[in-house]
Amino acid sequence: MIDLLTPVLDQAGIEFVDVEFQGNDIVGTIRCLIYKPGGITVKDCQQVSRMVHPILEVNGLIDGNMALEVASPGIDRPLVTEADFRRNIGRAVQIETTSETGESHELGGTVLDVKDGVLRLEESGTVTELQISTIIKAQIQLMW
Kindly report the CA angle at 57 between 45 and 49, in degrees rounded to 5? Predict the structure, then answer.
């Protein structure tokens, strides 16, 4: 779905961050998370909804029993793409990864760099490199 919608949103100057699905095959909600420098407005969400709903419908990804929500990912937004990590260079993040054996691992650190699908994190002087494709979940570590 991301590959289908990204080019359309790019033309509008909006980045497609992630898609979440809640529900089952009969009734559910598709939530599209979007980003724009300077923030997302209600008008942006309405515009994106009008743009993507027909595309999802034509491609059989949404029907009359499915709701479409468009929203900003918020302050604790998921980090999914290289661009997400690049925007957060210098910030602390929490990451859950998976290994080739299927084991999940949690780690945290400061984003140093991201390039060619590889994320570099630093924690207590130790630098770790991760393939973004192995990341299950990542978000900014909020300091309250």
Answer: 5
Is the torsion defined by CA of 134, 85, 29, 106 positive or negative?
positive
How does pLDDT run across 11-31, given as a tens digit for each residue?
A: 889 988 888 888 876 788 889
39 contacts: CB under 8 Å, gap ≥ 6:
72
Q: pLDDT tens for residues 111-133?
A: 999 999 999 999 989 999 999 98
Q: How far apart (Å, rounded) are the C-alpha atoms in residues 29 and 103?
A: 29
Residue type at 24? N
Q: What SS3 state is found at 140?
A: strand
- What tokens appear for 50 in the block? 């009008």
Beta carbons of 61 and 30 less than 8 angstroms apart: yes
Q: Per the structure block, which two tokens stand in for 30?
A: 């598709």
